[in-house]
């Protein structure tokens, strides 16, 4: 792969990564609810899922999954159900609060419970794995930049590392955007509103995934 080809691939990978899909929305809401650090920890699960998908594509299994109608439908409905489940869980999540001397008595201090890093990562991993279009993208996108003059495996490795680096940058950006929102969440009531918004968006994403066609 020439340097010019790699630059084009990097730009295209960034454009794909920055689209506001379920994982990016989850990173933003994690940043808003728990902070940028939590969003970054959660993103590790997404990167692991995409690394696995890239490996599947590189071995040729991605072509099998991409052409299998049954595999597409099973993954699609499993992913949609999981997103709806997360949305309902987020919508209904309880908000612990307590009065402090530093806060207006009319408003409660928010004591949002931060999930364990492993739980955040697992959610992002399952969300990414439940999106069959990701495998379709890798199967259709990566081969466009392969050249016969260079090692197939090395080119795939370079593209895989580059794509994951773009994803890491994007998930941090979404987490930072969410972190800005966190500064405005100063009461239990605000956090409940944020939970309803993020839960509703995740349920909507699940419905859109269920309605998606190949």
UniProtKB/TrEMBL annotation:
Answer yes or no on keyword Transmembrane helix: yes
Q: Keywords for this entry? A: Cell membrane, Membrane, Transmembrane, Transmembrane helix
Q: Which InterPro entries match?
A: LeuE-type
Principal localization?
membrane
Topology in the lipid bilayer: Multi-pass membrane protein
The question of whether Transmembrane is a record keyword is answered with yes
Which regions span the lipid bilayer?
Answer: 6-26, 70-88, 125-146, 152-177, 193-212
Task: Look up the record and report any one GO term of the cellular component aspect.
Answer: plasma membrane
* Cellular localisation: Cell membrane
Any GO MF annotation of the entry: amino acid transmembrane transporter activity
Pfam families recorded for this chain? LysE
Q: What protein am I looking at? A: Lysine transporter LysE
